[in-house]
Amino acid sequence: MELSLHAGRCEGYGLCEELAPRVYRLPDDDDVEILQPQVPSELEAEAAAGARVCPVAAILVSR
């Protein structure tokens, strides 16, 4: 699984980080950071859940 970000779309809700803190980090003044762009298999469910809850669909998931 691979993750990427729609540049400028993140509005800082932080739901992704709440569900998947090992995959996403939301700095106080910037877009979300993807800590694991190439997601290891043991974090795939967590990463997918974090992407799914984004209210503005800022995170793209590819397989």
Give your account of this protein's structure:
The protein has a two-stranded antiparallel ribbon. Strands 2-3 form a two-stranded antiparallel sheet. It is an alpha+beta fold and 63 residues long. The mean pLDDT is 95. It has one domain: Alpha-Beta Plaits (2-Layer Sandwich). 22% of the residues lie in helices and 19% in strands.
Write a concise synopsis of the structure shown.
With 63 residues, the chain is α+β, with helices and mostly antiparallel strands. It is 22% helix and 19% strand.
Radius of gyration: 10 Å
Intertermini distance: 5 Å
What would the principal axes of the Cα set say about the shape? globular
From the 3D structure, determine the CATH topology.
Alpha-Beta Plaits
What is the subunit arrangement here?
A: single chain
Task: Give the strand line-up of the largest sheet.
Answer: 1-4
Q: Specify the CATH architecture.
A: 2-Layer Sandwich
Detail the poorly predicted runs.
none
Beta-strand residue fraction: 15-25%
Output the CATH class name: Alpha Beta
Order of helices and strands: EHEEHE
Helix/strand-derived category reads alpha+beta
